[in-house]
Amino acid sequence: MSERKSEYDAVLQKAPDDDTLLFFTGHMEALGLYQALEDLLYSSFPHVNKRVQKTQITFYNSHVFACVSFARVKRKAELPARWLTLTLGLPAPLDSPRVAAACEPYPGRWTHHFVLSGEDELDGEMISWIREAYDFAEIKRRRTDSRKSQARAGETSPNPNEGS
């Protein structure tokens, strides 16, 4: 009985939550691919949070590093039967045929969109790009924390120009 219970618990742990299931309405064929990606993210990185929204699932540490969506970044005719779009924020442009689209929304941040159609595409190269995006988000967190600390210190420090 206990062996059966542990199998049941394992299935429950892997079962997607209601919000994720709702997100995949109309795209259930991509759910297995998404679950493989989600498992990879949670097993590879120490601090991963997830937010399910209407149009995307966002993964973040303190800042967003990856998003999953069904954004069409290729012509419909070029999309496979089962697909999802993985979006990564990176510090520099990638030169790879795997990049479906890329843009620089502001200096020093490049948004890359990948169309994934199979678990085999979650290979070493993709994992290295995800790691780069994760690390880039961590650097932004440290910068933000540093600015907040400086702002707090500035609030309590006397202004050297006051009284002149």
Describe this structure as you would to a colleague.
This protein is α+β, with helices and mostly antiparallel strands. The protein has helices spanning about 1-15, 20-25, 30-45, 125-155, and strands at about 50, 55-60, 65-70, 85-90, 100-105, 110-115. It has a 6-stranded antiparallel beta sheet. The longest helix has about 35 residues, at about 125-155. About 15% of the residues are buried. Mean pLDDT is about 85; it is low at about 5-10 and about 155-164.
Order of helices and strands: HHHEEEEEEH
Helical content (DSSP H or I, runs of 4+): 40-55%
The counted number of beta strands is 6
Number of helices: 4
Protein topology:
Layout: H1 2-14, H2 18-23, H3 31-44, E1 49-52, E2 56-60, E3 64-69, E4 84-90, E5 101-106, E6 109-116, H4 124-156
Antiparallel strand pairs: 1-2, 2-3, 3-4, 4-6, 5-6
